[in-house]
Design goal:
Layout: H1 2-8, H2 12-27, H3 32-43, E1 76-78, E2 91-93, H4 98-111, H5 131-141, E3 148-152, H6 158-171, E4 176-180, H7 181-190, H8 201-210, E5 213-217, H9 226-241, E6 245-250, H10 254-259, H11 265-274, E7 279-282, H12 287-292
Parallel strand pairs: 3-6, 3-7, 4-5, 5-6
Antiparallel strand pairs: 1-2
Helix pairs in contact: 5-6, 8-9, 9-11
Length: about 290
């Protein structure tokens, strides 16, 4: 029995050999390079982008130099970064196209502002409109920080004043996003539908969070759900924390919005803190009546 036990008990040399074999097997397993090559085989393309190779996914770009040695006329390049890097797979404008691409982007942003490029500006705002609110909006546009909350009755000029601010900043070359809140929520819903959505949830979130000036028009007109309230809180909170400028318009005061639970206390408090010194009531004549006259 003792002889049988001794034959089954591993010796020091055999245990060491087992550890060596096990270690050797572990080392011979798939390496990071093996994993990367396997992914490249699945995707059918290299997964580490070379900035000297153009990003051809979108085709030739009208703003790019067709003789550019960097992008070869495609207008975008990708950075040579590891697969786990945050910029991996992202496209960046080539230096030959960045000016033209920016002008195109400004034109697209201007098209989203109500009434397009033909709408009101600080220079042609009707004198029958609220001139006190107009002066406050102009003063806000001249500032480099802070946010503004415009509220008042329907059709008194809140959206028009927000449009004036947006156009003013666009002329200075600033990034501007003008979005009615109900439309913004619909855009986020479409990100869950890969056939309808043009942007991913992350792309749209980054756009709203990081744009220099965002106009959130008609706040409180959206139907209230917990998901929508949470979405608005995250966007408002992020812009407040980073000091990003935001213009809010609403038919109701913050007190009214909070009391009818359309926003909730958390969002109302964030907006109030974000817009300290810039809570402006818009009164006066119905601007739609002026246009019809």
């Amino acid at each position: 029995m003792d002889r049988l036990a001794s034959t089954l008990r591993p010796t020091a040399s055999s245990a060491a050999a087992d550890r060596t074999e096990s270690s050797s097997a572990s080392r011979s397993g798939p390496s990071e390079l093996d994993a990367l090559q396997a992914l490249e085989h699945i995707y059918g393309r290299p997964l580490v982008a070379d900035p000297t190779v153009p990003d051809e996914r979108e085709g030739l770009h009208p703003c790019a130099d067709p003789d550019c040695a960097m992008c070869h006329g495609f207008g975008f390049v990708r950075r040579n970064v590891p697969i786990h890097h945050e910029d991996f797979g992202k496209s960046f404008p080539c230096r030959c196209a960045v000016g033209g691409i920016r002008q195109q982007r400004i034109a697209r942003m201007a098209a989203r502002i109500p009434y397009g490029p033909e709408g009101y500006t600080f220079d042609n705002y009707p004198p029958q409109g609220d001139q006190v609110a107009l002066a406050r909006a102009r003063a806000f546009a001249e500032q480099d920080a802070g946010s503004l909350f415009l509220w008042g009755e329907v059709r008194t000029g809140k959206t028009s004043l927000a449009s004036c601010i947006a156009r003013e900043l666009l002329t200075r070359g600033e990034d501007v996003l003008f979005m009615p809140v109900p439309d913004l929520i619909e855009e986020f819903k479409q990100t869950f539908d890969h056939e309808r959505g043009q942007l991913t949830t992350t792309q749209l979130t980054d756009l709203v969070k990081d744009t220099t000036l965002v106009v959130l028009d008609d706040l409180g007109a959206e139907q209230v759900t917990e998901w929508r309230r949470d979405l608005l809180f995250r966007l408002v909170n992020h812009r407040q924390v980073l000091g990003k400028r935001t213009v809010y318009t609403s038919n109701k005061s913050l007190v009214e919005l909070e009391s009818d639970r359309r926003l909730g206390e958390r969002i109302a408090w964030r907006i109030k803190a974000h817009c300290e010194g810039w809570l402006v009531k818009v009164a006066g004549q119905n601007l739609n009546d002026l246009e019809a006259a």
